[in-house]
Amino acid sequence: MKDVVAVDLSPFLREYKGGRVDRLLRSTFVPASEDAGANRGVTTRDAVIDAATGVSARLFLPSRTTTTSNNLLPVVMYIHGGSFCTESAFCRTYHNYARSLAANAGALVVSVEYRLAPEHPIPAPYDDAWAALQWVASFSDPWLAAHADPARLFVAGDSAGGNIVYNTAVRAAASMTSVVDIQGLVIVQPYFWGTERLPSEELAEDAGAVLPACLVDRAWPYVTAGQACNDDPRINPRDEDIASLACSRVLVAVAEKDMLRERGSRLAARLRDCRRPIGHDDDNDDDDNYDVTLVESEGEDHGFHLYSPLRATSKKLMESIVRFINQPLPLPVLPAAFLPEPHELRLLIGTCEEGKKKNKKSSARPILGLPSRPYMDVFGYGMAMKRWTGPSSCLMHPTTALGKVGQGNASSKTRHGLCLGRARPGQTYMGSFSAAGHGSSVIKNFF
After folding, report:
1. What angle do CA 363, 367, 368 make, to 5 degrees?
2. Residue 411 reports pLDDT greater than 50
3. pLDDT in the model for residue 176
């Protein structure tokens, strides 16, 4: 009786009538190591997030990291796949992938080890991911405290992990007690489904997909211990939940031959539609106040990037994710009170570079309106902004924004810039002010 199969979810697991669970899709355990030289330039360390539930994480810190305050790294909380019932953050497959992501993106990666079904059915994986997000966002871990940039927090995952990423972001948007600023989501080949077949799922039924539709049909009821069916909003997202997401950027990656491809593509389209601003002009991309990126890998099936990382399509997907993570931060929008009066827009700049080159006496040039493109060394803007905003403004005095804060201007070349917020000692800020359309202004070149 013990060897009689009760549930067969190959290639993930088999459960036997005696209660034994045989996980088929799993790779060998890999220990953490603080020897970056033996770990392809990445130091790794394990941390306990919640001792009561056993939730933990493996942190991946690229060796090129320095301890200077202006060299903080983006943080990627990564959630592994495995149909909610197998794989691990500590297995070779996901250890190697997270290490590669950390090295390529120059990011501090936190790979979450969450509880698995059937021993811990849904919602345990969601609760564990939520606990991990709170822990990461607290920046209480020594590595996070020393190296993480709180303004660049990403949540990423593949397959079931992509599903968990989405549902974690929905929970974060709905939370009234915990405010977490997620910069972006990376959702790779996400595990979403429904009670009705989509056209591509009908066609691919017998096409030899890695995840056949009959397997996907049975997986969700199993990992929820029979408490939910395939129209559950956690597996079949609702428009109102999609519209609630507060993060500014989302990358969705799909594979051409994946049974889940159309679900992922539709999620990206719905993200654009549900979060489209009122009065949006479909022909004007500049009218978007959000960023949804869809990446499709031609000729590939589910999980290809994990098991064939050296393939050209795997490298291309990694490059897309790295670019997404390292995009410049969204530019802050100034309140209307910060905008100058029209008569104050006639500012003068100092020495003209062209005049310098020709050894001629320089002359001031009037600037009518704010510049349409960002540039450096705009003399006079700092003092003008100070006059516009007054002494109580949160905008810093231009001399404070130069060079190392608290050390004066450490550069031999004078640089005038503006920045928002409070600077840390030893941190460098630079920027220039420009208009951003009707009734709004932004700081550009802000870093």
Report:
1. 145
2. no
3. 78
Q: At what angle do helices 92-105 and 312-325 cross, to 10 degrees?
A: 50
The 10 Å Cβ neighbour count of residue 7 is 13
What's the half-sphere exposure (Cβ side, CA atoms, 13 Å) at 144?
A: 24
Angle at the Cα of 27 (from 23 to 33), degrees rounded to 5?
A: 135
Catalytic option among 159, 297, 434, 441 = 159
**Does the annotation mark 140 as catalytic?**
no
SS3 state of residue 180: coil
For residue 318 the two structure tokens come to 């990694």
Identify residue 75 by its one-letter amino acid code.
V
Residue 281 pLDDT grade (very low, low, confident, very high; cuts 50, 70, 90): low
- As given in the structure block, the two tokens for residue 114 are 């969450």
**Whole-angstrom distance, CA of residue 328 vs CA of residue 349:** 27
Element holding 272 (H helix, E strand): helix 261-274
Joined tokens for residue 260? 């889940």
- Tell me if residue 231 is catalytic: no
Catalytic-role residue among 128, 141, 158, 258: 258
Residue 58 pLDDT: 98
The runs of H, that is alpha helices, within 275-426 are 304-307, 312-325, 353-357, 381-389
Q: For residues 84 and 190, is the Cβ–Cβ distance under 8 A? A: no
- The one catalytic residue among 80, 95, 120, 302: 302
Q: Is 302 a catalytic residue?
A: yes
